[in-house]
Specification:
- The chain is mainly alpha-helical.
- Helix content is 66%, strand content 8%.
- The chain is built from three helices and two strands, in the order ββααα.
- It has a two-stranded antiparallel ribbon.
- Helix 2 (40-65) runs antiparallel to helix 3.
- The longest helix has 31 residues, at 71-101.
- The radius of gyration is 20 Å and the shape is elongated.
Length: 102
């Protein structure tokens, strides 16, 4: 009967890919950060969904609201999409900087 208790099964220092910052970090740093900042992945996901929705509004507007997008609504949705893209990038880079410093 052999057991692998000293193996790498529970090695918390091995690198883990973080999907929100698109980089690899130590697993223990990522776990510690994630337990302290539980709402941050939700904000990142919401900004990403908002970005995709706003940039696709001119294409989907006829199917969703029954009217074609006007020039003004297209410009407004594009500007709001740029703003939400900025917020998404800012949240992702803040996450990266904070995890990196741990």
């Amino acid at each position: 009967m052999s057991s692998n208790r000293n193996g790498n099964n529970f090695d918390l220092s091995k690198p883990t890919f973080d999907l929100f910052s698109l980089r690899t970090f130590r697993n223990d740093a990522l776990l510690q950060y994630s337990s302290l900042n539980q709402s941050e992945p939700l904000r990142i996901n919401l900004y990403l969904i908002l970005t995709i929705t706003l940039f696709s509004f001119p294409t989907l507007s006829e199917a969703v609201i029954g009217e074609q997008a006007t020039l003004i609504t297209t410009i407004l949705s594009s500007l709001a999409g740029i703003a939400s893209t900025f917020l998404f990038i800012q949240e992702s880079s803040n996450r990266y900087q904070t995890i990196k410093s741990n």
